[in-house]
């Protein structure tokens, strides 16, 4: 079992042509559930949980896997309140840099509120860096109890999230 990544087992029942995905139980729900319940997350928990997120994402990136949908809802809590990265539905493999060049992604994935400015602009982006942007949005939500950007107005979201960020510098 990999720390800070939700483990899954696949089971197929051939008679009924159904695929069942069985996941490790998240006894304490998602990080979003905790934020909604507690509103204020103390610094000790925030640091611990963010380190779990960093460790899980780093593990993936070192193996050439990008998540592309990091958000509070996809960070699940086990019985001991350890965060586990889950929902790899938008994940992509084989994304390790080759000859010092990181492959770009052109697919919009994830949620507007957590998306990097490049994704919102619809330009090719480095998915590892977009995962890191999303981690920053999660950290903001943990510390302040709300998201940094309002995602109900796409144009305003694009304007605000891009402020002071030059294309290609993130």
From TrEMBL:
Protein kinase domain boundaries: 1-170
Pfam families, alphabetized: Pkinase
Cofactor(s) this protein requires: Mg(2+)
GO biological process, alphabetically ordered: cell differentiation; intracellular signal transduction; microtubule cytoskeleton organization; spermatogenesis
Top-level division of the source organism's lineage: Eukaryota
Keyword annotations: ATP-binding, Developmental protein, Differentiation, Magnesium, Metal-binding, Nucleotide-binding, Phosphoprotein, Spermatogenesis, Ubl conjugation
Keyword Magnesium: yes
Alphabetical list of SMART domains matching this protein: S_TKc
Keyword field contains tRNA-binding: no
GO CC list: cytoplasm
Leader sequence segment: none
Any one Gene Ontology molecular-function term assigned to this protein's record: tau-protein kinase activity
PANTHER family for this protein: MAP/MICROTUBULE AFFINITY-REGULATING KINASE, TESTIS-SPECIFIC SERINE_THREONINE-PROTEIN KINASE 1
The protein, known as: Protein kinase domain-containing protein
Organism: Timema tahoe
């Amino acid at each position: 079992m990999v720390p800070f990544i939700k483990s899954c087992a696949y089971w197929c029942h051939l008679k009924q042509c159904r695929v069942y995905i069985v996941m490790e139980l998240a006894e304490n729900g998602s990080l979003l559930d905790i934020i909604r319940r507690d509103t204020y997350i103390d610094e000790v928990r925030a640091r611990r949980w963010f380190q779990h997120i960093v460790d899980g994402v780093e593990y993936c990136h070192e193996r050439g896997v990008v998540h592309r949908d990091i958000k509070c809802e996809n960070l699940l809590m086990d019985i001991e309140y350890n965060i586990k990265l889950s929902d790899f539905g938008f994940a992509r493999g084989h994304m390790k840099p080759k000859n010092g060049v990181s492959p770009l992604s052109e697919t919009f994935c994830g949620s507007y509120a957590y998306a990097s400015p490049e994704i919102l602009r619809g330009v090719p982006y480095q998915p590892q860096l977009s995962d890191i942007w999303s981690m920053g949005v999660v950290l903001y939500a943990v510390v302040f109890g709300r998201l940094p950007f309002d995602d109900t107005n796409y144009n305003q979201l694009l304007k605000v999230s891009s402020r002071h960020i030059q294309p290609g510098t993130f």
